[in-house]
Design a protein that fits this description.
By secondary structure, the protein is of the alpha/beta class. 21% of the residues lie in helices and 31% in strands. 30% of the residues are buried.
């Protein structure tokens, strides 16, 4: 079982409760965009508290990057991560994950479920292969949208946002369901990538399967 102790190089805010962690990269450590590893904090009492987080940087970068939403009220790992500073240490483990790019399609994310898609879209942009890929994100409010400007720059009108707890000009106000998907997606015979809260993923997996039929191409991370 792989295990690497790495230094935190920097911590910067992305939204009010999401931070970007720049971390030293172990020699020879590789992953596919969309994959994750289990992370622990190298501090007394936290070394055995493993949690999965997605790599949001690219393999050819000289460091690793994680984009992590913190839940301080839970008094758990993400709350502790929010307190980290440059010089602190993390422990990384094996690379794993079902989500990786299989072909052009529709990416559907709930909140921080967008994180596996960050590296995928960055890699596609680097290779000039963004094509007609579409990203549909559901968030509570505008302030919860992760990397809004970067995705707008990459995808333009193919970056679609819907809000569930706020009405704001220029944004949809609708849950992602059958009605919404039929409005936004014209072709259901393409790849669908879904990541978010477990219930949302399960519901959307069934919804897309019903819309696409027996040949549905669905990749999920639960």
């Amino acid at each position: 079982m792989e295990q690497h102790i790495v230094k935190v190089l920097s911590v910067t805010p992305v939204t009010h409760d999401v931070r970007r962690y720049k971390v030293a990269k172990p020699k020879g450590y590789t992953f596919l965009p969309g994959q994750a590893t289990e992370v622990t904090i190298n501090k007394p009492g936290w070394e055995d508290q493993r949690r999965p987080f997605t790599f949001t940087g690219l393999n050819d970068w000289d460091h690793l990057e994680f984009t992590i939403k913190s839940y301080p009220e839970r008094n758990g790992v993400t709350g502790q991560l929010a307190l980290l500073k440059a010089g602190d240490e993390l422990i990384l483990h094996d690379v794993w994950g079902a989500i990786h790019y299989k072909g052009e399609g529709v990416f559907i994310a709930g909140g921080a479920g967008v994180t596996p898609f960050i590296a995928i879209f960055r890699q596609l942009q680097q290779e000039g292969r963004l094509g007609n890929n579409t990203l549909i994100c559901s968030n509570k409010t505008v302030g919860d949208i992760i990397l809004k400007e970067e995705f707008e720059q990459m995808l333009g009108s193919r970056f679609i946002n819907t809000l569930t707890r706020e009405k704001a000009a220029g944004y949809d106000h609708h849950v992602i369901d059958t009605v919404y998907l039929k409005e936004k997606v014209k072709d259901f015979h393409q790849h669908f990538y879904i990541c978010g809260p477990d219930q949302m993923v399960s519901d959307l997996q069934a919804t897309v399967a019903a819309l696409a039929g027996k040949n549905a191409l669905i990749t999920v991370e639960l």
